[in-house]
Design brief:
With 295 residues, the protein is α/β, with parallel strands linked by helices. It has one domain: Divalent-metal-dependent TIM barrel enzymes (TIM Barrel, Alpha-Beta Barrel). The protein is built from 10 helices and 8 strands. It has an 8-stranded parallel β-barrel, surrounded by 6 helices. Belongs to the hyi family. This is Xylose isomerase-like TIM barrel domain-containing protein. Keywords: Isomerase, Pyruvate.
């Protein structure tokens, strides 16, 4: 082939792909981006619509974008009946909420009685909200207490909470954090120690909340570590955000289409929590999530 002919054909191929304006066209918007193609997403209404103080309006905004599931943080500051009624009206499922946060720490035995009481109350809320999972957090570092001992205390506390969860048919999902960016001083981070804790608790009602954002920052190799977690049957729930920034997929360095395909290969059929802050508008973030799941 002559150079002139090769040049002509190359130029023609490019011209066929690029519109007459000379600019690549953006992905077309989807009317209901929450209705994704491969993965079920639960939008976190604590991090989305943050300027809206009314949680019921946040639920309505989620439904307007096509999402049929949400996740929340603590239940104490919300009108439980109103939330339940609004979800029923909108056809929205609450996938999980936080039953036990950072303080007081589960890693201190003096807090275990309070933990048990809180889990009991949380299970009642979960039943009202028709929710089957509650997030629990290990706690921040305790001065002069070795990490191994704190983890032993977490195991002890979860063993006390597991029978309550089992009685109500609720799964406790333990979330490890990252200490490089968001939660310096937290006592639990990375998959290895979290897998060890859940294994020691030895209850099918205690699993891991596998936040891909935290895991990426802590240890990387997202797909490889996910396979290990699923092989051990200890993953209860997945969350995501891109990095850096903790925004929606496509804003950082994580190639989420590949990770979401891995979840499909691992036969994960649960929801993936969108615990990320929209970089711009919520509508634009939902479009980005749809694009990441459109493989």
């Amino acid at each position: 082939m002559t150079p002139d002919r090769r040049t002509f054909l190359s130029a023609g191929a490019v011209a066929a792909l690029v519109p007459s304006t000379g600019r690549a066209e953006p992905e077309p918007k989807v009317a209901k981006p929450g209705q994704t193609k491969n993965t079920k997403f639960a939008v976190n209404i604590e991090m989305w619509w943050r300027k809206e103080r009314d949680y019921l309006k946040r639920l309505e905004a989620a439904a307007a974008l096509g999402f049929n599931a949400v996740e929340l943080w603590p239940w104490e500051n919300k009108d439980q009946n109103a939330v339940a009624e609004t979800c029923e009206r909108l056809g929205i499922k609450i996938v999980q909420f936080t039953a036990w946060g950072f303080k007081p720490g589960l890693n201190d035995p003096k807090n275990h009685n309070q933990f048990v009481e809180k889990i009991e109350k949380g299970c009642e809320v979960a039943k009202k909200w028709k929710c089957s999972m509650m997030c629990v957090v290990a706690g921040d570092d305790i001065k002069d207490v070795p990490q191994e001992k704190m983890h032993e205390n977490v195991i002890e506390g979860l063993k006390k909470g597991a029978p309550i969860a089992q009685k109500h048919g609720i799964t406790l999902i333990l979330e490890p954090m990252n200490i490089r960016v968001d939660h310096k001083g937290h006592c639990l981070y990375g998959s290895a120690p979290t897998l060890k804790i859940v294994k020691e608790v030895n209850s099918k009602y205690v699993k891991i909340l596998w936040d891909l954002y935290h895991m990426h920052i802590t240890e990387g190799d997202l797909c490889g570590h996910l396979r290990e977690g699923f092989a051990a049957d200890m993953v209860g729930y997945i969350q995501l955000a891109d990095h850096p920034g903790r925004n929606e997929p496509g804003t950082g360095e994580i190639h989420y289409p590949r990770v979401l395909k891995e979840l499909k290969a691992l036969k994960y059929t649960g929801y993936v929590g969108l615990e990320c802050t929209p970089l711009g508008t919520e509508e634009a973030a939902a479009q980005a999530v749809y694009a990441a799941d459109n493989w």
